[in-house]
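Form 7-S
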Amino acid sequence: MTRQVKSRQRVQDHGEVFTNEREVNAMLDMVKQETERIESRFLEPACGNGNFLAEVLRRKLAVVTQQYKKNPDDYMRYAFVAVSSLYGVDILEDNAQECRDRLFEIVESEARRAIKNPDEAFLDAVRYLLNKNVLCGDALTLKDSNGNPITFAEWSLVTGDKVKRRDFLLSELLDGNTNMGETLSLFSFDEANEGGIRTHTDWEYDSEIDAYIPSAIKEYPLTNYWEVQRYE
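Output:
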């Protein structure tokens, strides 16, 4: 059973209580189809040490294994996509780091089980992704631990092994999503109102998700997925 409390002091100081495994699975089963779609993106705004993200990752990797275990190159490509789809924020750095380590261990373990010898370049890229996608910060103020606006990268598999990275401010990604107590879909903005799709004059239409999104604050050249850290 998952430990729900690290210490009384942390509960008093930060209200830190982790969700147990049974509740995690019950909640994720409500959006089961999305948790098993390799490319669907999730944000956990108070991720703790990763109880929700770990289970979503396991479900996604199970699909990757089922579909691609006979081809190691395909397996690593789509495992990369699965990892790149998960985002987390926690106010405590030790939780954020524990979450990164936990997710990496899941990827490494599942990859070794599915394809025996995953490339080190693939594992390095996964660790880099997790350092970018799981951050220490405050999801209420939308600032990171240094007081800067939280920025997340969108990773999109464009063609073959080529990945496109675009950086966005979390504050704009969540514009219109005010319920910070739930796991949220990220980079998804088809919010209905009386006029139909909700748009902003400075947003752009993304045909991949059939919705409007904010303009990226930075874009990177296309690169092989195992070389994403080249353009830091």
